[in-house]
Design brief:
- There is one protein chain.
- The chain is α+β, with helices and mostly antiparallel strands.
- It folds into 2 domains: about 80 residues, no CATH class; about 60 residues, OB fold (Dihydrolipoamide Acetyltransferase, E2P) (Beta Barrel).
- The protein contains 4 helices and 5 strands; from the N terminus they run H-H-H-H-E-E-E-E-E.
- A 5-stranded mixed barrel has the order 1-2-3-5-4.
- Strand 4 and strand 5 form a beta hairpin.
- Helix 1 runs antiparallel to helix 2 and helix 2 crosses helix 3.
- The chain is elongated and about 80 Å long.
- The N and C termini lie far apart (about 80 Å).
Length: about 170
């Protein structure tokens, strides 16, 4: 009997740990979340006097959770609490919010010069344009000749092609 108690406590704590990992470390609702729910339920079932009592308790807890969730959503809507949690400003093109131009891809393979130290990000001049660039992880001093390796959306990846100019 004592072994059952310790096993159920261990399962419950492992379930809580899995849920905390799901919330803080692993994004989404995946393996850690499902495992945590199963471990908690298993720990509760082991502590119960009989299976029917444990199942009834779990179903009642689930129903109470759903009721609190519905009540909470209605409360948030009634008192506009969602507005406190969301950003209300919109990003209009006229205010300068524009997507990066697709023309950056045309710079692939071109050479230029690092204007600032790249550790690993900074600015470089490529084909007469000042671009925000990143390296593949290495440090490149200012004045070093660089080459555009690839463009990933608005991210321009460069590598050194020589020694820094003095």
């Amino acid at each position: 009997m004592v072994t059952h108690v310790w096993l159920s406590i261990l399962l419950f704590l492992l379930g809580i740990t899995a849920l905390v990992l799901e919330i803080l470390v692993v994004p989404g609702f995946g393996l850690a979340g499902v495992s945590g729910i199963i471990l908690i339920a298993w720990g509760v079932l082991l502590l119960a006097v009989d299976f029917t009592q444990a199942t009834t308790a779990l179903v009642l807890a689930l129903a109470a959770t759903m009721a609190v969730l519905v009540f909470g959503v209605r409360l948030f809507k009634r008192y506009n609490l969602w507005q406190m949690l969301t950003l209300r400003t919109k990003q209009y093109r006229e205010a300068g919010y524009v997507a990066p131009s697709s023309g950056l891809v045309l710079n692939t393979g071109k050479t230029g010069t690092a204007l600032t130290p790249l550790r690993p990000s900074g600015a470089a001049e490529v084909s007469g344009l000042r671009l925000d660039v990143v390296t593949e992880g290495e440090y490149i001093p200012a004045g070093t000749p660089i080459e555009v390796v690839r463009v990933e959306g608005a991210r321009v990846v460069v590598r050194s092609t020589g020694k820094p100019r003095q």
